[in-house]
Design goal:
Blueprint: E1 6-11, H1 15-25, E2 31-37, H2 41-51, E3 54-56, H3 59-63, E4 70-73, H4 80-89, E5 94-97, H5 104-117, E6 121-124, H6 131-142, E7 148-154, H7 174-177, H8 180-190, E8 196-202, E9 213-219, E10 225-231, E11 241-245, E12 248-252, E13 256-261, E14 290-295, H9 303-321, H10 329-345
Helix pairs in contact: 4-5, 5-10, 8-10
């Protein structure tokens, strides 16, 4: 039996539409790029030459087609909601780039539109499949670190930026641009429900009016504290993940990690002593640490390609077999609600057009 080929229309051929989505889809035989829309003539000509795709200046002409199995929305962030709504109402399954929306109510509107149309709404949160994140999850799930007290995540670096993604009018800024990646991961580790939010934002090196430094704390009863940084003014980034547990901890980046833990049954027996310790000594002991390391496998070293492949593998099963989405709109709604609260706590002035 021949394998079904998913016919795809991509709206937008910028960094995401071309460098991420088209780059993967053109090499995946289960998908065919049948149509592309972009306002820039050179991009349309390139899509026609490289993919053999029909091209359109106006995305609405692409949406009028009835032979597409999937429409991928990779437009400006502020157009994600309105164009996704149009695509759903035109009868298309839609994969929307992150950020899905600016407000949780907009996610509700998109979910309702997909349900009414009887169509699929998927969100490209490929960092859920990042090799380093999967390793963090495995270590935590093993229980060797004990109860997880705090998880620190840092997507930091030092950079100046002056493009459209620095502008609030286009839903720019570090939290909406980069933030959906670590925030999706963080909320998977936090669990369902709305966390307590404390957020600080700043404009450091940006030439636009949106923030490029974010400090976000999330907490909840019986949950680990999440400490998330997304900064463009960190000249000495130290780690991507640090996990604090009652029996050990983990630290590392996207390519290497190490963790250590002890077995309480093999640790020295201790009990509370209320009197001063003999000889004015401090509490000191040698714990029987077990230390382990992880290095990203060579097959996963190109993380962008690996994450895209994993995402589109799962999406193919959803489109052809009815398998449930791994990353659901309801999960993304939790993320957008957190982002919305962060912006509420940090109103920023805007640049004049």
């Amino acid at each position: 039996m021949a394998r079904k080929v998913i016919r795809v229309g991509i709206i937008g051929q910028g960094r995401s539409g071309y460098d991420i989505h088209a780059r993967h889809l053109r090499t995946d035989r289960r998908y065919k790029i049948a149509a592309v829309s972009d306002l820039i003539p050179d991009r349309r000509a390139q899509a026609q030459a490289e993919f053999g795709a029909d091209t359109y200046e106006d995305y609405r002409d692409l949406l009028r087609r009835s032979d597409l199995d999937l429409v991928v929305n990779t437009t400006f962030s502020d157009l994600h909601v309105p164009i996704t709504l149009e695509a759903l109402r035109a009868g298309h399954n839609v994969l929307c780039e992150k950020p899905l929306a600016r407000r949780a109510a907009e996610v509700d509107e998109l979910v309702a539109a997909a349900k009414k149309a009887g169509k699929l709404l998927a969100i490209f949160q490929q960092s859920r499949f990042a090799p380093y994140f999967q390793q963090v999850r495995r270590v935590i799930a093993s229980g060797v670190l004990g109860r997880i007290v705090m998880i620190k995540i840092a997507f930091n670096g030092f950079a100046r930026r002056w493009d459209w993604q620095t502008l609030q009018e286009h839903h720019g800024g570090n939290l909406l641009n980069t933030g959906p990646h670590p925030l999706d991961q963080a909320l998977q580790l936090f669990g369902p429900g709305m966390p307590n939010i404390t957020c600080l934002m700043d404009r450091a090196n940006t030439f636009g009016d949106a923030e490029d430094h974010v400090k976000l704390l999330m907490s909840g009863q019986g949950r680990p504290t999440i400490d998330l940084e997304i900064s463009s003014c960190c000249a000495y980034p130290l780690y991507t993940y640090q996990v604090y547990g009652t029996r050990g901890g983990l630290t590392g980046g996207t390519s290497e990690m190490k963790w250590k833990y002890f077995n309480p049954k093999k640790a020295p027996k201790r009990q509370l002593i209320r009197e001063p310790l003999p000889g004015r000594q401090y509490c000191s002991e040698q714990l029987p640490w077990v230390e382990k390391t992880w290095t990203v496998p060579k097959s996963q070293a190109n993380s962008f390609a690996y994450m895209s492949k994993q995402f589109y593998n799962h999406l193919y099963r959803t489109l052809t077999e009815g398998a449930p989405l791994v990353i659901t709109p309801e999960q993304v709604r939790q993320q957008i609600a957190v982002i919305e609260e962060c912006h509420r706590q940090n109103p920023l002035s805007r640049l004049d057009a």
